[in-house]
Amino acid sequence: MQRARDLIPLLRSHAREADRERHIPEAVIEALDEAGMWQLTVPRRFNGHETDITTFVRAVIELGRGCGSSAWVTMISNAVSWFVGMLPGDAQKEVFGAKPNVRLCSVKTQTPDARRVDDGVIVSGRWTFASNSLNAEWALIGVPVLAPDGSWVEAGQGLVPMSDITIEDTWDVTGMRGTGSNTLVADEIFIPDHRVLPLDSAGEGGVPTEYSDEALYQSAYVPVLALIPAAPLLGLATTALELSIEKLPKRPVVYTGYKSSADSPTVQLAVAEASAKIDMAYLCMWHAAEEIDAVAKADETMPLLDRARIRRDVAFITRSCQEAVEILLDANGASCFAHSNPLQRIWRDIETGSRHGMLVPGVNMEVYGRALLGADLDLWTT
């Protein structure tokens, strides 16, 4: 944790540049590398850290306190490394064998343009919103799992080297601008079977790695994918609170008699309420992450209702971060929307990041509500 925490000043100093230039500065990439942040979920067999999920999200939260985009790309790269740890050993050697600090990007979008060949699949297509595309050496893309006759079996994800991929510069958005979540384009690329994971199998816990004693890669698939994108948001919200506590006592409340915002009951209540929301978000984060780890280490399958409850927890974390920052923006006033003020960037990053498909609060709450009421759920909701 300390190595991630030590990066906060550097990340903050480059956060505006990442936002403006729409990519992570090289100085930050190198610092993340030197601190071992690209190896959080790489197996120890390849000199990685092989952290548990709790440690993973703790590190990403710390990075999020410095820069939302830097935390996001670190989270994405390690999410893919975690995915690689589920694949057969041959695939793991290809990715980690020569370079355990490899950087990866990911996009779940499925391509319909695929055909079955001996020992693999040939795909062409476009995959949008590939976070970390500008820094990655490998990409995880959505590909179908096909039967020998070429018929569709289920959705899958396959690993391809970035040398097989063209990047289209399409990521010009309001928040999380530094993530480089561009479009990947491929034309007739071959992906061998050992680099493809059927997603239903992953959801059921049937991953093909030969190293079944490595608990990290047995962690509940969808709960992990839902929880980890919330970590950068929690780091961002924490910084918004820290900045507000630092700055508000030095500012008057305009059109009132308060020369310091610290004397205003309205501002006092706002800071207290925002801090409560953030603290509750942390409690939900630790509870969910520790539960995922405990089940994986016990070599058990997480019950459906518990998996759905983690989706609910993610909804609460996401909404709490959004609401806390909104409250703090109100307390800080219009001046926090100056480009030079990091609060406006934090707000933009949270509002953009929280729209990730795994974070949308209404969808996640619906999943748990359906589970509580006994309605049907498929693997990809839990």
UniProtKB/TrEMBL annotation:
This is Acyl-CoA dehydrogenase type 2 domain protein. GO terms for molecular function: acyl-CoA dehydrogenase activity; flavin adenine dinucleotide binding; oxidoreductase activity, acting on paired donors, with incorporation or reduction of molecular oxygen, reduced flavin or flavoprotein as one donor, and incorporation of one atom of oxygen. Gene3D superfamilies: Acyl-CoA dehydrogenase/oxidase, N-terminal domain (1.10.540.10), Butyryl-CoA Dehydrogenase, subunit A, domain 2 (2.40.110.10), Butyryl-CoA Dehydrogenase, subunit A, domain 3 (1.20.140.10). Belongs to the HpaH/HsaA monooxygenase family. Residues 229-359 form the Acyl-CoA dehydrogenase C-terminal domain. InterPro entries: Acyl-CoA_dehydrogenase (IPR050741), Acyl-CoA_DH_C (IPR013107), Acyl-CoA_Oxase/DH_mid-dom_sf (IPR046373), AcylCo_DH-like_C (IPR036250), AcylCoA_DH/ox_N (IPR013786), AcylCoA_DH/ox_N_sf (IPR037069), AcylCoA_DH/oxidase_NM_dom_sf (IPR009100). GO terms for biological process: fatty acid beta-oxidation using acyl-CoA dehydrogenase. Keywords: Oxidoreductase. It comes from the Bacteria. Residues 12-94 form the Acyl-CoA dehydrogenase/oxidase N-terminal domain. One of its GO terms (cellular component) is cytoplasm.
